[in-house]
Amino acid sequence: MKYQQILNTIQSDLATTPYAGKVATYIPELAKISPKKLGMHLYCINSGHYSFGDNDERFSIQSISKVFGLTLAMSLLNDELFKRVDVEPSGNAFNSLIQLEYENGIPRNPFINAGALVISDVLISTLKNPKKSFLEFIHDITGNTSIAINQEVFNSEKECSFRNAALLNLMKSFGNIKNEIEEVLDFYIYQCAIEMSCKELATAFMIYANGGKKLSNGQQIISSQKTKRINAVMQTCGFYDEAGEFSFRVGLPGKSGVGGGIAAIHPEQYAVTVWSPPLNPKGNSELGMYALERLTTLTGFSIF
Amino acid sequence: MKYQQILNTIQSDLATTPYAGKVATYIPELAKISPKKLGMHLYCINSGHYSFGDNDERFSIQSISKVFGLTLAMSLLNDELFKRVDVEPSGNAFNSLIQLEYENGIPRNPFINAGALVISDVLISTLKNPKKSFLEFIHDITGNTSIAINQEVFNSEKECSFRNAALLNLMKSFGNIKNEIEEVLDFYIYQCAIEMSCKELATAFMIYANGGKKLSNGQQIISSQKTKRINAVMQTCGFYDEAGEFSFRVGLPGKSGVGGGIAAIHPEQYAVTVWSPPLNPKGNSELGMYALERLTTLTGFSIF
Amino acid sequence: MKYQQILNTIQSDLATTPYAGKVATYIPELAKISPKKLGMHLYCINSGHYSFGDNDERFSIQSISKVFGLTLAMSLLNDELFKRVDVEPSGNAFNSLIQLEYENGIPRNPFINAGALVISDVLISTLKNPKKSFLEFIHDITGNTSIAINQEVFNSEKECSFRNAALLNLMKSFGNIKNEIEEVLDFYIYQCAIEMSCKELATAFMIYANGGKKLSNGQQIISSQKTKRINAVMQTCGFYDEAGEFSFRVGLPGKSGVGGGIAAIHPEQYAVTVWSPPLNPKGNSELGMYALERLTTLTGFSIF
Amino acid sequence: MKYQQILNTIQSDLATTPYAGKVATYIPELAKISPKKLGMHLYCINSGHYSFGDNDERFSIQSISKVFGLTLAMSLLNDELFKRVDVEPSGNAFNSLIQLEYENGIPRNPFINAGALVISDVLISTLKNPKKSFLEFIHDITGNTSIAINQEVFNSEKECSFRNAALLNLMKSFGNIKNEIEEVLDFYIYQCAIEMSCKELATAFMIYANGGKKLSNGQQIISSQKTKRINAVMQTCGFYDEAGEFSFRVGLPGKSGVGGGIAAIHPEQYAVTVWSPPLNPKGNSELGMYALERLTTLTGFSIF
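ok -> structure tokens follow
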């Protein structure tokens, strides 16, 4: 089957797939998004773009931004980064304080909230204008300078970030946050509030499929070695408490967000993104997970 | 660099690498093994065998046997198996009762002790003579019928298996063990007490690199789809509380044992095993981890 | 109000008090008891016996036996006993393995199952015939040699003791159980299977109200100092995860059992027992808790 | 022995008792206090005041203030208060977030930090000027209007309160904090920064020994019934993770603070306070615990 045929098949499948998931409501602004939104975009190294549905409509990337934050931090720092955040999968929900307390304020990995907050703290310490640099990084890897944050989502999330403030305070009590709590929280929420379409996200994620280089011009954004390590972290930690299930059923490194987006890659093959707002109980896009499982089944290969 | 050259380089490196690890002592019989033992074996799909050191000497495979147990169970059963054991990485040590109690007796994955005990229980319910079938399975995939258990290790482990008996009793209280506790424990310890050399283990693991087929004769031992799933579980759960670190540094699916062995694969490329008894604090072979990190660095590719 | 009037008032109150609790079912033999059973017995140092309802009918004392086990162990040993079991309240359910694992096999207190199992282990190591001595101890403090175990309850509990076997195996892995697991389990279940009436239990508990002496003949069963310590443990640990609530509402040291019995004392005043099988979600007799709250309200004094 | 003789004996004992404890250092201002400070004050209902050492020197009452906060809240509110904070002992350290997360933001009891923060939040919602009312309450029960906070301790604690801010944010995420986090934190630290001498504290605690009434004029500060309940909470929860040990060895309701103070009472008999800054590993005054154990041994009675 050709790629566009496969995507058409998935689109048909999804049209009749019942779902039990609910759109995220803990950020009021996100709760307004229609649960019917559905888009998918496949960007192949050798054969270009395939897509269906709302693949050109922007949505809140939320936790998918954590991959960009980690990439930026790893491009600026070496192994010292991993003294402040580990790379182990977490056996608890994405915002749990429990493991963090037992492990003395060192987050399990950069993709749970605690870990992403440490990465934000590192970027604030390293960059002169972290918000500007972060957005420029995304403009650079997508070649699209119109990508920006959604101010309403940003404001909305700011008002209900007590859990993240608790994480920051706990880590600061262990000495693992160096900057002001308000500043770290502000920068973290800024990243989450960025909006991108499936197509733009697939273009951005192409660097992870392409050994750290932009496909458009071959520019090395991050070393091949570090790219592999980011991919490994996506594989083991990219889906909250469902990373094993995603590896088991889909077999690709990827990252999900509570906006309903998922971005994944097959090294040296393609980047793929899907968007469907209803989330399963673990906080991942229910139809998105299914769409990617269908993709690797129909293409016949996962990375394993 | 050619493969034998790479292995020679690793052998030289290891000769001068200091280590802090200790040989496992909780099974008295294992404590007798010399910490100096060191062997590595690489078996490539296209170019055959490469090795150094004690690669032909048999050692106690211990938890590496859990991969064979899972394979056998998945070859006999379908998705119903995963109602009794999950496939998520575990954020705690390999024999912890804590997560098991919170999660109502359903082990996090088949590679922590609790999960392997459930797999043993399943095999006892399914097979007429589970010990015989298990050994025959290994004879089949290695083509070597002399592989057997070490009776002293078996006896030694039997006398100090209170933790595993606690896990079994706890799971039985939740209804997730169907057979007699003594019988499950006996079969589980039997599997751990099997002895194989690096070469034999690499040959056995070739089925995971080769889409579920024996390389020698093309016989399909387990479906390609199920092989991918086993590899995914090895990737996310194969190294106790260090699975993320192994993915991050090595980037291959694999499984370690407290006997000091590690077996790993690169899909469609090779199976590789290493044996060095001293264990790091997480219970994985210290030099073994390092040897495999060197291998993927020197060959220039992980699966990511 | 005189004591008998107070008890009559409580009896009237209970007759119209709705309850949501359920009779314990995890021991099949206990599940057969009528939820309507209800008895109360008050034994005052200065004025003798008061009672109502089924106060003369024997029931399974279950965990109330833990007080007798602790008393016997403390009468035989001094502070070395408390190296093997602590005296702190437990923030988890009565049979939880979690805290035990974090605290290296030292149970939080002698009234959670793990602690009572350690006490049983201690008694087996110290006494020639622990079952006989245990029963004789109860015969001695009650002056009633007809008290015995219920063999059906004993058999019934033996068949569903996987949780306790898990606790024993876990503690044995930490070196905190010295005897054979089967033997400790057997003796522990024996103690739980003893049957006594409210009147007999109140007579037995009189020693805790009377400075360690039998009221009938002034014989010192256990020193006054140790009696105070046992009472302190009852106060802080006697009601599983509801010890604080009981102190808060009732204000007396006491101990409950899943058979629906509660025994409590007011030092230098009285011993009181109540029996009503339906248990609240924390595992304590629902109407029993209420009856004792009414008692201290109507008499106008708790120990505080 | 007469009371003053008993206190003299304790003073002699303490002079030669070695201690391993350290003065609290997490609040820099407290770290400056001499570890040699030592005072004790016994205030008997029937026979007045007895004391030795630094009993007239003021020190930071810290967590002992939680008893006053609870008393004030219980005098203003009824059982609805206990929907927001439980009365169960806590099996973890005094500032742990873990239990709080598992129990959905409802603190285990009013004497762990989380619980005292909820009480502070309640008082802010109820009182027009909570700081003023709190201080006036202490002025009232001691008859001493010169009692005030230590501004340096207040400032010092404000700068290192990340743990408490984490607790507040976590509870606010569960909806169990109604006011601004900064305001609650400020009021909570204010209470902790109050300074009182042993004599003043013993006078204040006399209301708990005297059924809720001031001994000087018989004024009912809080009902007899509520006084008993406060005493019960002190008994089961007053000493962090050592409440059981204190009950076991001392047998009195009481409360300790990291300033090295302990206040305890014997209902209808006396209030007693002791001050010695070095803390044991559980955070309670090491010599203070010992002094109170000697007191109940030498007087021959605990409440049990």
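The first helix of chain A runs from residue 3 to 15.
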